[in-house]
Amino acid sequence: MSDLVAPYRRTGTLEGACLCGSVRVTIDGDYVAAVGVCHCGMCQRWNGVVFGCFAASAEAVTITGPVTRHASSEFAERAFCATCGSHLWMRNTQPEDDYEFMPGLFPDAAEFPLISEIYADHAPAYVSLAGDHKRATRDEYEAKNLFVEGDTP
Ligand SMILES: [Zn+2]
Ligand SMILES: [Zn+2]
Q1: I need a surface site. Which of 58, 73, 95, 122 has the fewest CB within 10 A?
Q2: Which residues contact 145 (CB under 8 A, 6 or more apart)?
Q3: 65 CA distance to ligand 1 centroid (A)?
Q4: pLDDT tens-digit profile of 15-32?
Q5: Rounded to the nearest whole angstrom, what is the distance from the C-alpha of residue 143 to the centroid of ligand 1?
């Protein structure tokens, strides 16, 4: 993954907010100006359609407002606004890692390209993402990364 994101590493400021405006996210530091998509069963269920995210260094992130964290697995949490339900981030917590933010919170992220799609062989019929971004099947992804056993339908 690091080779894939290397050309997209940036240092700077990004401002994001949830739908109701109660949760504000400021990134002031290192982030990756590119989006990865996941079609695993948990991501499909949580997002309802397509899960996509971009990474920001934990030390660069400031969050204010009513955040609810859901421990979606032994090693990761998914966070949302307690008031309006907007999805905010997914993050590995064992150990704590970068934030993986929902790009829709950040107006500037609308310019970010799609660079990866994992669980590509489990994408629902109504989602077909064009382009020559890197794709990995479930087996290819799970051979190299943490995953939740039996999660994918
Ligand atoms: Zn909200
Ligand atoms: Zn997923």
Answers
A1: 95
A2: none
A3: 8
A4: 999 999 999 999 999 999
A5: 36
